[in-house]
Amino acid sequence: MQEPAGNTNSRHPADLTRRGLILSGMAFLAGCATSGPKKLPTAIWPSASPRTSEIVVKPTPSVSGITGVESRLLWAKGRPVPSLMDRMLPIKYITIHHDGMNPFHGTGAAECAARVELIRRAHRNRGWGDIGYHFAIDASGRVWEGRPLNWQGAHVKDYNEGNIGILVMGNFEQQHPSSAQVSSMQGLVKKIRRKYGIPVTRVKTHREWASTLCPGRNLQSQIDLSRSYSRFG
Which domain holds residue 115? Predict the structure, then answer.
């Protein structure tokens, strides 16, 4: 089940910030979602993630049960809202996405954390209970914990049940994933497959479920190669 979807003339900075978040909420998943059988809308996103104070990534336990994952406590500025989410059913699928925003090559912890938080806010503005993905992978290969795995995601309309969502950060219609991202993606898929007994035939991309460009042609080609060379384990 898909979760429900959720004074421009003012020059005050706070108003501009609110306006940016509203636009983000309206536009999110444009490059990663379906709006009809054939239509692929253009994403409307800020040109850069908001600046944040520098953070230092320290070993922080992740509640996902998957090793090598940075806890959401390092980036999320809000908690999941259980009343707006469904409990996860037995896990049977993994689906890989890109964010479809502006190209992003950031590797610093602060800028990557800010981008994940921007996505979470956009999803909350759609009326969802949390960020729609369970994991996010930045250009350095760092894996961030997203929505807790005990909650069903919001990343493939009509096919979220028992489906873990992995976001690879960037727009892979316009850029190429880094080698570190590809390697981390492969490693994360292996870990999830082994933990939940998911066959490799159930590792999919968003475009393999629906009419969408997601995860972008340049990431799709890397996923196809990963399958061909058994790099998903």
Answer: 13-228
